[in-house]
């Protein structure tokens, strides 16, 4: 997986597209202060597919440039990305047709706390990926 990390990310594209087709027209309300956003679950699935595609293209670009990503950073990136996806996928799979998530816990943990942790892991994985990409791109290979 660390020799061809782009395959992991390209493999996520059909998963998110399939989820988007299966969960089409399920609304979710996002309320921030007095502003209420009403979006569909499939929108977030398609955004996730695009994101995974872009990350895959980054890793593939390194391969085309004969640059190898750092093994430890790549493993950490994929691990953080996977851990951040668990609550996201759980929520998508357990939404009812009205967009309500009935369960408030996952494995005994408060789901809202897990969502917050997942967002932080996701942001950390972005920083890790950009660091890995830039270090691999600009450092000379031997």
Account of the 3D structure:
It is a single chain. The chain is built from 4 helices and 4 strands. The model has no long low-confidence stretch (mean pLDDT 84). Helix 1 runs antiparallel to helix 2 (41-64), helix 2 packs parallel to helix 4 (111-138) and helix 3 (71-94) packs antiparallel against helix 4. The chain has one domain (5-138). The two termini are 22 Å apart. It is mostly helical and 142 residues long. It has a two-stranded antiparallel ribbon. A two-stranded antiparallel ribbon has the order 3-4.
Cα-based radius of gyration, to the nearest Å: 17 Å
> Number of helical runs?
4
User: What's the rounded overall pLDDT mean?
Assistant: 84
Order of helices and strands: HEEHHEEH
Strand content: 5-15%
